[in-house]
Amino acid sequence: MSETTKPSLLGLEPDALPAPEGQPYRRRQLADWVYLHGASSFAAMSNLPASWRTELETGYSLIPFTRSERFRSHDASVRYLFTLADGRQTEAVYMPYSGRKTLCLSSMVGCPAGCAFCATGALGFGRNLSRAEIVGQLLAVAVGEGFSPREVRNVVLMGMGEALLNYDNALGAVRTMIHPQGLEMSPRRITLSTVGLPGRIRKLAAEKLPLVLAVSLHAPDEETRRHIIPTAHAHSLDDIIASLHDWQNAGGRRVTIEYTMLDGVNDALWQAEGLVERLSGLVAHVNLIPFNPWGEARFRSSSRVTIERFEKVLVRAGVSVSVRFSRGRDTGGACGQLALTRG
Ligand code: SF4
């Protein structure tokens, strides 16, 4: 089997990793090489029998990328562009802030949601990433930055793609992240981002995992929202909000509402008031995100004054809110921009 057709070990549940007959303890040793040491070859796994290492080498691969490129930003974030076995590309971002290692990972090549302000949306949909390709981003970044994959404490699945449309692989990757023999992360530190798919939100609620759910609302009224997210007509705002109530009624945690501030599009005071109304009865935190301009974007960010005025309406109504500046502006900062500019 060639290197690119061999299945990656990262696609397996950590407690389903292979082990030689009669030596189940080798499975944990192998898991430690992969998820604790971030080994990039089977040859490096020095406490495993040489014959078994050869066997593993013949049947499996590890990180499933043919190339990783690293772009450092002035604000200390680092963007990675990965080339997959079929030549397509996807991205991840490492954000080393406040002493925490946070990674933003992709769930797809491109994205079918087509949000009008997003560079990934402009790429269109390429394909879903496999479980191994999602977990592989985390491992490749840890190896690239020189720390153990198990040191990563925060993951946001907010890079390229709509994670809930790649449900099984995204959830599979989350299971590797929280597995005690995998990356040992707390599910409370994993954020799954969605454009708002009520059916999938309800399905996720039934998993009973205390993940953070982030919903890209971007507007409180259908007309503006459909202008920003052309595919949004498939689900009404009423149904999306109802699914968030279902999420919380099923024990789900506080919901994060993502709201990208677009000049003259969704930043009027009546829209702030509309957002307050939409969120009534929900335990939610709103992130107001000044738009991060990129090459062909046809939007501009709302001004600081407008954002502060919008924020005040939410604060006065008792809505929890913060203003988030996106990172990595000087390295192709908008999600998907690296892949877009590199072809
Ligand atoms: S903002 Fe997210 S959901 Fe929308 S097109 Fe970009 S990657 Fe897809």
Provide the descriptors you would attach to this structure in a database record:
343 residues; alpha/beta; DNA polymerase, domain 1; ten-stranded mixed sheet; binds iron/sulfur cluster
Provide a concise account of the structure shown.
It contains eleven helices and twelve strands. With 343 residues, the chain is α/β, with parallel strands linked by helices. Helix 4 (131-145) crosses helix 5 (167-178), helix 6 (198-206) runs parallel beside helix 8 (237-249) and helix 9 (269-279) packs parallel to helix 10 (304-316).
Task: Describe the structure in your own words.
By secondary structure, the protein is α/β, with parallel strands linked by helices. The protein has two domains: 51 residues, DNA polymerase, domain 1; 277 residues, TIM Barrel. The chain has eleven helices and twelve strands. The strands form two sheets. A ten-stranded mixed β-sheet has the order 1-2-3-4-7-8-9-10-11-12, covered by helices on one side. The chain has a two-stranded antiparallel ribbon with strand order 5-6. Helix 9 packs parallel to helix 10. It is elongated. The relative contact order is 0.12. About 2% of the residues have low confidence. The structure holds iron/sulfur cluster. This is Probable dual-specificity RNA methyltransferase RlmN. Specifically methylates position 2 of adenine 2503 in 23S rRNA and position 2 of adenine 37 in tRNAs. It is found in: Cytoplasm.
